[in-house]
Automatic annotation (TrEMBL):
Cofactor(s) essential for the protein: a divalent metal cation
Annotated CDD domains: MECDP_synthase
Positions with a binding annotation for 4-CDP-2-C-methyl-D-erythritol 2-phosphate: D8, V9, H10, H34, S35, D56, I57, G58, T132, T133, T134, E135, F139
Signal peptide: none
Ranges for domain 2-C-methyl-D-erythritol 2,4-cyclodiphosphate synthase: 1-154
Protein name, entry field: 2-C-methyl-D-erythritol 2,4-cyclodiphosphate synthase
Site (described: Transition state stabilizer): H34, T133
Cofactor note: Binds 1 divalent metal cation per subunit.
Organism of origin: Leucothrix arctica
E.C. number: 4.6.1.12
A single GO BP: isopentenyl diphosphate biosynthetic process, methylerythritol 4-phosphate pathway
PANTHER family: 2-C-METHYL-D-ERYTHRITOL 2,4-CYCLODIPHOSPHATE SYNTHASE, CHLOROPLASTIC (PTHR43181:SF1)
Class of enzymatic activity (EC top level): lyase
Gene3D superfamilies, sorted: 2-C-methyl-D-erythritol 2,4-cyclodiphosphate synthase
Length: 157
């Protein structure tokens, strides 16, 4: 077994929606990011890569490369999971926490779980996504952005 953890944040900027867990969520702001800014998928990629000591998302998809400008983060996730499978591992389960004051995540969590389970060729009961606020504390509490923590467990096939 291998365990990995990932963490990512993105600040809010101009926009009319955010991408989170591969789901387009209506919001009066967007994320400031080189890609689509999907902070949940970015943290998940880091957790997967970290479990096998393969570096981080920035190493594999540098934000200095025009190749990844505006890219759908699900494309990155599928690529990362290919690296995991190539090394003989698969997802046993993942657990994540989205830290956001707004928008409310609960209406979107089941859809995010479905999308991520599909991209990781897994059953939905292996994909845990929770959400919390920071009680108006810090940059999340002041609605300046969103942070996500992810932990994964990989097993060798």
């Amino acid at each position: 077994m291998r365990i990995g953890c990932g963490y990512d944040v993105h600040a809010f900027g101009e926009g009319e929606h955010i991408m989170l867990g591969g789901v387009k969520i209506p919001h009066h702001k967007g994320f400031i990011a080189h890609s689509d800014g999907d902070v949940l998928i970015h943290a998940l990629c880091d957790a997967l890569l970290g479990a096998l000591a393969l570096g981080d998302i920035g190493k594999h998809f540098p934000d200095t490369s025009d190749e990844y400008k505006g890219i759908d983060s699900r494309t990155l996730l599928r690529h990362v999971y290919g690296l995991i499978k190539d090394r003989g591992y698969r997802l046993q389960n993942l657990d994540s926490v989205i830290c956001a004051e707004f928008p409310k995540m609960s209406p979107h969590i089941d859809h995010m779980r479905e999308v991520i389970a599909e991209d990781l060729e897994s059953k939905i009961d292996k994909v845990g996504i929770k959400a919390t606020t920071t009680e108006k504390l810090g940059f999340v509490g002041m609605q300046q952005g969103i942070a996500v923590h992810v932990t994964v467990l990989l097993i060798n096939e």
